[in-house]
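ping. complex inputs:
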Amino acid sequence: MENVIHILFCLTLLYTVVTTRIKSYVSMLVLQGLLIACVMIFPFLKSLSIHILIIPLLTLLVKTILIPRFISRLIVNLDVPRVVETTLQPFNLLLLLVATVILMFIAAQLLSEYAPVPPIPLAAAFSTIITGIYLIIFRTALIIHVIGFLIIENGIFLLGTTVAAEMPTMVELGALLDIFVVVFLMGIAINRVRSTFSQIDVSALERLKD
Amino acid sequence: MEFVNLILGLLSLLIILFTSPLFAGFINKQKAMLTGRMGPVIWQPYHDLRRLIRKESIYAESASFISRVAPVISFVTVAVAAMMIPIGYTIPLIHFKGDIVLFVYLLGLSRFFQILGAMDIGSSFEGMGAAREATFSVFAEPIYFFTLGSLAFVTGFTSFWDVFHNINLSNPSFIIFIIVCTISAFIMMITECSRMPVDDPNTHLELTMIHEVMILDNAGFDLFLYQYTATIKLMIYGSFLICFLNPFGLSNHALGYVIFAVLTVILSSVIAWVETMTSRFKMKNIPQYLLFAAAIGILNLLIYSFMK
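pong. complex structure:
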């Protein structure tokens, strides 16, 4: 059953590299948050102790409600264009991602021979991290860089839930808080960039002079 | 028992041949109702086909014998492909090891002759449509092979009936395959039958048409054959998709037909809904849409290879 969720997670990744509309990125973030919360709730179903439930619920709150809301508001406030510009055609990026996913599956398979980790969740987590990096490299809008960062974070969460059977609760809470604060700060930074350069695009940052 | 199977196989062929215009009409009716119109009656495709069948074929002066044989070959190959699809619980008329490969190449042959027939006359619009059809089918074929190939791997059979017969929904790993395969098979159906996000069946601007532009110079009986082929193809792919979702464990023929009918109605609603909610893609975005579906299929194959 966990495998189903990881596969759905991979499908969201494929969609994020194909789409160019900014709203779909946000809805994919919501979906990914939901899937991560689902993955985290499985230990609770096995042991039924309440304190395991805190992390999934907080993840649900932060990743599906607070952060997407904040990003949507940022999009409205900054009037980001509805369609994102790309430096690489989505078709080519999709080919690249498929190649990467295949590579990650093979790597995860090799790793799982040495360590007791299931290959599919491991591969899903690795692919998520790399997708986030691709988004940051191949999209010019700064808001997509924030979203790419969040996708990398999602990948790390996924990795945490598969590799470490039980991450300390305090660490996870700290990570969640960190992510939220970072997104908040990035929002402020983008606001400043916009007020200085009147557009939020990396191409504007190339003309920096002193 | 052999005789009963033969009769039931014939029955499923007849179901595909005779209810396919109804399926298309039902989709059109629902589309019209979703956009707030009355729409034509659901029998409208039958009326259209009857009108066309009574007219004589007219050929252009530059047409060679290809134009004469192409519609017939296109129709016959699709009809033979229809014999391989199991409906309900019946054993299809043609089934042998590896018929999943024959199935897709029969449909490919049908398309090939349609393309030849379109290029035969020498109209530039039809040549353009033929080029598009060929390009998009190149991207659509991997979807089929990755999707059905992974299912064939999982079940260990290479015949439609055996593959679908061995899908066991109580096994959780099959649920992944069914979810993933259904998505990619749906996209494949949309493409192959030139439905909405890829091609608009109702458009009348030659520059944007794909399938319809190829049959501009056909009239009468030939047009009937092409249009009928298109509805049968829609029905075949629809049944193909339904086969994924059909719980084959039960060996009751009547129940199989009921489930088939219910799933067909649901599928037609889904198609109508998708066609209402989405707008057409730009031509240059279609390959990436198809690659997306193929990527889903590749993912499916990967899961199979790495799942213990």
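Chain B has ten helices and no strands.
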